[in-house]
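Late entry, written up from scratch paper. The run itself happened at the end of the previous shift, but nothing got recorded in the book at the time, so transcribing now.
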Amino acid sequence: MIRLHHVPQSRSMRSLWLLYELGVEFECITHPFDKSLRSADYLALSPAGRVPALEIDGQVLFETAAITEFLCETFPDAGLGRAPGAAERADWLVWVHFAETISQHAAALTQQHLMLYDDAMRSPIVMKLEAARIGKCYAAVEERLQGRDYLLDGGFSAADVSVGQAVYMSRHFAKTDDFPAVEAWLDRITSRNAFQKSLPAASDTVLYEKEFYPAWEL
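Output as recorded:
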C-alpha cells in the first residue's frame, strides 16, 4: 500500500511525478494549502505539518529527498535511482538533494509574494536577492547539462525529476531565458506523460494564479 499526501504546486509534486514514473499503484490524498496540515492527525504523519508525507507498507516518510531515495531503492527495476556502489551514485545523490537548494529560494519568494498578508512585510531587496540566487542555481544546472540530455550520463533518472520539479516551480520567480540548455532539458522532461499527470487538475485550488511574479522595484 502506498499513499501520498499532496498539495498541488508544492514540493510534493516531486514525489507525485516520481510515483507516476515508477509506474506503481498508489493513492494520492490531496490537501488544501491551509491550517488542516496542522491537524493532530496530519502532524502524526509529518511533524512539521508539511507535504509530502508518504505512507508505504506501514511506514511513514517525509522530506522529498528521503522519499526519492527510498522509492528508488524499493523499486530498482525502474532504473530511476543509482544504487550504492554504482559509478553515478555520488552524482545522483548530489542532484537529488540540489533540488532542495533551489526549492528553498522558491519557498522564500512564495512567502514574499503570496503568503505575507501586509505589503509592509514584503521586501523588494529579499525578492531580488532570492531571484538572483535561483539564477545561480540555474547556472549550475546549465553547466551540468553541457553535452548531456539529462543530469546523468546514464540517462533520465529521479535526479531529473527532483531538479526538474524545482526549476519548474522556480520559474514563477526567475526566468530561464538566459539558460538554453536548461530550457531544452526542461522541455524534454516536462513532455513526459508522468510529469503531465502530476500537474494540478482542473478542480484543484492552485497556489500560483500567475505564471510569473517579478521582484518589486525599490
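The longest strand covers residues 2-6.
(Scratch paper discarded after transcription.)
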